[in-house]
Structure formats: structure tokens, C-alpha cells
Amino acid sequence: VLTNGNEIFNNARKGKYAVGAFNINDLEWTRGILAAAQETNTPILVQTSMGAAKYMGGYELCLHLVQDTIKSMGITVPVVMHLDHGNYEAAKECIEVGYNSVMFDGHDLPFDENLEKTKEIVKLAHAKGMSVEAEVGSIGGTEDGITGAGELADVEEAKTLAATGVDYLAVGIGNIHGVYPENWQGLNFDRLQELAAEISTPLVLHGGSGIPKEQIVKAISMGISKVNVNTELQLSFAKATREYIEAGHDQDVNAKGYDPRKLLAPGTKAITDTTKERIEWFGTPSI
Ligand code: G3H
Ligand code: ZN
After folding, report:
1. Model confidence over 55-101: pLDDT tens digits?
2. Ligand nearest to the CA of 180
3. Is the minimum distance from the CB of 98 to ligand 1 under 6 angstroms?
């Protein structure tokens, strides 16, 4: 059942748990992630980056893929279809197309411009009953070819952005996209505490792959209500696929191990397993 994120994430903030937001890349990713939500009977957010949507053939196709997969798999848990790290044009397009939720990521704009554009997106999205995520500070690392050093969210700016009526707010607290470097300093809990004390909007932790479980659990107890996970699913998928090939199954002519439906099955199952593990870490309660 597709829905916006308002109730799901407000409940999460109040209940001190998080709901996972998982990035999709294709049918296997979509099926793998939705299966995890259904098997655990928990709500979930499925998101497309601009790059993934381009790869798959556009936002409309992505929305239909998720809608039709929900139908064909008989998914009954709430699912939020969300645009991840959208620029202004992408956010507007996804609102037009009928996503349930969009992130307008204006962190690299001058703050006043980020604020103005966030306000516009909030107005457009709320008029159609959709949720909005904004970002303040920045998430380090690389995603979709965009690299940033990472900058802690300024508390005053975060308060100002939250006051626009955004439904969730992504905050830079030392988190990084992609694989964390060996010398990573960990999450900045002091800053998270300052932000959470001033802002009641559900807070979002990006770069959820590779952060030790204890730090994620602690951040959730302090006000993080949405955790984004992308790279971890890619690593799981790649590992399972590699093992299948290294075991020589793809060469097994009798079993037709080269059939993509067989070749991609272990990776798809790995996506489901990793998603289920994260749902457990995040403490998302069953419905
Ligand atoms: O927006 C997506 C997430 O922040 C994913 O980060 O690839 O490090 O898990 P990740
Ligand atoms: Zn992100």
C-alpha cells in the first residue's frame, strides 16, 4: 500500500525507533526490498536517486515498477515511494509524476536559496498530500558521482529549514555516503543532541551503510527516525553474485545456471536478508 511518510516517521520519532529507506536500482532490488518489509510486517521507504531513476528509464517508470511490484507480490505493508537527493527539477517532476515523498537536497546551494526552494517544494508537495525531506549540513563521501567533504548541520539553519514545514530533515552529523574510510571519526552525537533538542521534525541519517550498529542504535534513541541505506545492499548483492559465479554455477549447462533468473536470485535474496537485518537494527515495530 503506497502512502506518504508523515504518519510513519512521526510515529517513529515519538516511539524512538527508525524506519529504513532503501535505494532501488532495478526489479531485483525492488522485489528484494519489498519482500523484507512484507516478511517482517513493517513499513518501509523505497527510494530512487536521480541516477538510479535515469538508469531505469525515468521517474514514471520507477513509480509504476514499485506500484506494480507491490500488486503482483501482494504487499500489504505501507510503502513510501520517495525521491532521494533530488535537485529542484527532479523534486518537481516526482511531485508531478505522483511519488509519495520527495527529498529536495539543496545543501550545496547558498542557505537562503536552499530555504526558498525548500519552501516552494513543500508548498507543491503538500498540496498533493506528499511528504518532503530537506537537507542541512552535508553528507560526506560520494553518491552518484557527487562528492562532498561533509559538513556538520548548523543548528540555527536546521531550525529555520524545519520551520518550512518539511516532514523530515536530513542532518550532517559526521555521516558519509558509501564505504567509510578507516580513519572515520564516528557520528557527532553532541551535534545530534543539539539538533534533536531544538527540532521535533523526524531527523534523517544518510550514509547508513557501514556505521557500527551501536552508533546507529544510539542515534535512533536520540531522534533519528529515518536511516538511508544504499551501499550495503550493493555490497551484499555483489558478494552473493560473486559467490554464485565463483562456485561455477553460471557454467552449469545442465542446470542452466546462466539463466538470469537463476544468476540474479542469490543477490536478490542477499538484498532481502540485509534489509531484514537493518529493519531489526532500526527497531521498526511490526504493524
Ligand atoms: O541517500 C542515500 C543514502 O544516504 C545511502 O548512503 O550508500 O552510504 O548507504 P549509503
Ligand atoms: Zn544520502
Report:
1. 999 999 999 999 999 999 999 999 999 999 999 999 999 999 999 99
2. 1
3. no
Distance, CA of 219 to CA of 63 (rounded, Å): 31
State pTM to two decimals.
0.96
For the cut 60, the answer to whether the pLDDT of residue 211 exceeds it is yes
- Domain borders along the chain are 6-232+271-282
| Closest residue by Cα to residue 43 from 14, 67, 68, 75 | 75
Q: For ligand 1, is residue 92 a contact (CB within 6 Å)?
A: no
From the CA of 247, how far away is ligand 1's center (Å)?
Answer: 30
Q: For the domain bounded by 6-232+271-282, which CATH number is listed?
A: 3.20.20.70
Q: For a substitution probing ligand 1, which of 103, 229, 237, 275 has the most ligand atoms within 8 Å of its CB?
A: 229
Residue 182 CA to ligand 1 center (angstroms) comes to 18
Question: What atom of ligand 1 comes closest to residue 232's alpha carbon?
Answer: 9
Question: Which tens digit of pLDDT belongs to each residue from 164-183?
Answer: 999 999 999 999 999 998 88
Best residue among 146, 231, 234 to mutate for probing ligand 1, ranked by most atoms within 8 Å of CB: 231
Phi/psi of residue 30, each to 5°?
Answer: -65, -50
Q: If 0-12 CB within 10 Å is exposed, 13-18 middle and 19+ buried, where does residue 126 land? A: middle
**Cα-to-centroid distance, 186 and ligand 1 (Å):** 16
What is the C-alpha to C-alpha distance for residues 9 and 267, in angstroms, rounded to an integer? Answer: 29
**Residues annotated as part of the active site:** 84
Q: Which of 90, 94, 93, 124 is nearest to 105 (CA)?
A: 90
pLDDT digits (tens, 9 = 90+) for 196-205: 999 999 999 9
ipTM score for this prediction: 0.99
Q: Cα(5)–Cα(53) distance, rounded to whole angstroms? A: 20
Q: Average per-residue pLDDT in the chain?
A: 96
